Amino acid sequence: MALRREPGAPVDLIATHGYGGSAAVWSLLLATLGGLVRAPVEAQVWDLPGHGARRADSSGPHDIDTVTGELRLRVTRSPRPPVLLGHSLGGYLSLRCVLTTNAPVRGIVLVSTGPGFRDPRARAAWNATMDRLTGALGLPAETATIAYMTDALVLERLPEGRVPALVVLGGADRPEYRAGGTVIAGRWPGAQLFEVPDAGHEPHRTHPAEVARAIAQFLERNLSGPLAGPSGVVVSRVTPGSGAPPHRSRWRKCGRAGYAPAVRLSRPGGSARPAPWPLRCQRCEGCRRPRCGGGSGSDDA
Predict the structure, then answer these.
(1) Which candidate among 25, 30, 221, 275 keeps its CA 20 to 30 Å from the CA of 235?
(2) What's the whole-number average pLDDT of the chain?
(3) Prediction pTM value
(4) Residue 295 lies inside a defined structural domain of this protein
């Protein structure tokens, strides 16, 4: 089940954050990944409705299907078949996208992700939890609907997985997420499981080096032929409704103390300056709360 790749072609990555986060949560991971892969990675990051730059999103009501549709649209518009990367709710949306799109996808990386619930009562309890979490995070009340579980589509269709998958677990994450990730890895054909022993629900932020190495090895194993070409990650942030081309920043390794291991070039070939992220855990407000998450566990562990 190898991914096809033309010699020298970059790897396209579409990253979807979890509930309560934003596109910015991927900064440390992508900065670290840029120094590990031997091929260019073009990463597209985006904000879910009600989050980040879309906190006051007025484009209409959203639910899990409309948001999955947004991700499918990004897949179809990608210049090359992408690898999907998702955390928690973003991982669940990525799974739902892969299982419901006809567009080619090259692989999927799931961080602290569950497959949802088969029992309607468990789904109702989850939805009520999302209502409470939305209030605790100070998000618009209608935002919760993007995380409401409405069916067992993902859980029931895991055996239909047709692309390489990497499942990343935090060893100190809540039991429902560890159980849910184990279910995904066990039922998705050929899935690989990687655990970060001391990590909680956000290993991509608290342990970016370990997660980046696992992703780099996953790409190396699943892309046919050696990864070669200029290294680095080009990050594009897409704002819905904007006709302007997305801003791109290339990240490369830097050993300057006190900063994340990256140098930001405002444009490829431009002058370098240190990336403005100190080496610390950058938590969203919700991650200070015991029930923060926004993915989905599993009642089928």
Answers:
(1) 221
(2) 78
(3) 0.76
(4) no
